[in-house]
Task: structure prediction
Amino acid sequence: MRGKFITFEGPDGSGKSTQVEMLHSYLAKKGYDCLLTREPGGTRVGQLIRGIVLEPSYRDIADRAELFLILADRAQHTAEVILPALGAGKIVLCERYNDSTIAYQGYGRGLDLEETRRMCSYASFGLQPDLTFLLDVDVAAGLRRRKGKRTVPRGEKGMDRIEAAGVRFHNRVRAGYLDLSKEEPHRIMVLSSSKGIQETHLEIVRVVEKLLAEK
Result:
């Protein structure tokens, strides 16, 4: 039986990593066979791509080149990690997937949205998450949170290349995410960062348990 594919999305500093790790720990303790992964960087090839995409000194990467790098990571990640795990009946928890590309490269960079969607579908073999949690946060607050978590500064002000793209860029990204949630309310659940970490976790658990109980 095919497993379940659950993704976590949101602007930088929205708390995705914290929540996906908490859910993974919860499901593992409950005895579920689950896999935790992320994009970019969920494979050995992906780690190399992640280093290129986020390196702050690579400021001259063209927007389309950035998109192709992200899609190359997704194609490898989906083929090597996600599809085999789902085929084995595992629950796959992934931090970022197609929605991120549409939000960041489509809305954020201003690339053609329909073309970006089509390319995402091709790179992901047509795979869509069963459930997506969108953790929403005010852009300025999210970037402050990310900067505060840096232990070793990277680039100017300790930000990676995407984080350093500017507030206007990140506002477009957030707007894109919210548009996507309106298009697919059955799949994308929006959670506000105004709630506490534990309260958000319990809400996520409630929704996931309902999904797993479905035949």
DSSP finds eight helices and five strands in the chain.
